[in-house]
């Protein structure tokens, strides 16, 4: 007679695939309506303006815009901020020597947004340089 019970069920556990949780859209990325921002267990990241939370604590976008993460009173929040159409994106290469890249931070109640704009600068025309001859000791001796 066997001294232990049969343990067939505990030895036959199968490997299950992961549930693909985590942050799906990071900060400063564009997002459209209904796209998932965070999949999580519990509310590690809370939904802010422009987002809603599902019954499994999934945070998704309710309006198109740009994703912004911020902390408030020690809690992490995510919100969707409107994308500004008037702001041009600065490229890695400088546009020309006649342009200047300007960065400005705008602080609102809910999030901090950073805008990058390219401003044109007027071309400066170089003035002709007058040539001046310096008198040296050798030129003064030659005249005497």
Automatic annotation (TrEMBL):
Q: Does the keyword Electron transport apply?
A: no
Spell out the Polar residues composition-biased ranges: 1-17
* Matching Pfam families: Ribosomal_L27
> Would you name any one GO CC term?
cytosolic large ribosomal subunit
Q: Where is this region: Disordered?
A: 1-27
Is the Transcription keyword given for this protein? no
Which keywords appear in this protein's UniProt record, sorted alphabetically?
Ribonucleoprotein, Ribosomal protein
Which GO terms fall under molecular function for this chain's record? structural constituent of ribosome
The Swiss-Prot or TrEMBL record describes its family as follows: Belongs to the bacterial ribosomal protein bL27 family.
Quote the protein name from its UniProt record: Large ribosomal subunit protein bL27
Q: What is the lineage of its organism?
A: Bacteria, Candidatus Shapironibacteriota
């Amino acid at each position: 007679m066997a001294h232990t019970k049969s343990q067939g069920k505990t030895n036959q556990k199968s490997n299950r695939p992961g549930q693909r949780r985590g942050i799906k859209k990071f900060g400063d990325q564009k997002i459209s309506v209904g796209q998932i921002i965070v999949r999580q267990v519990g509310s590690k990241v809370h939904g802010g303006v422009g987002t809603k939370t599902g019954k499994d604590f999934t945070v998704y976008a309710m309006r198109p815009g740009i994703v912004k993460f911020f902390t408030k009173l020690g809690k992490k929040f995510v919100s969707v901020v409107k994308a500004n159409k008037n702001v041009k994106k600065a490229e890695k290469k400088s546009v020309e020597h006649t342009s200047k890249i300007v960065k400005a931070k705008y602080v609102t109640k809910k999030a901090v947004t950073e805008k990058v704009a390219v401003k044109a600068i007027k071309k400066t025309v170089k003035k002709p340089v007058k040539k001046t001859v310096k008198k040296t000791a050798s030129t003064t001796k030659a005249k005497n």
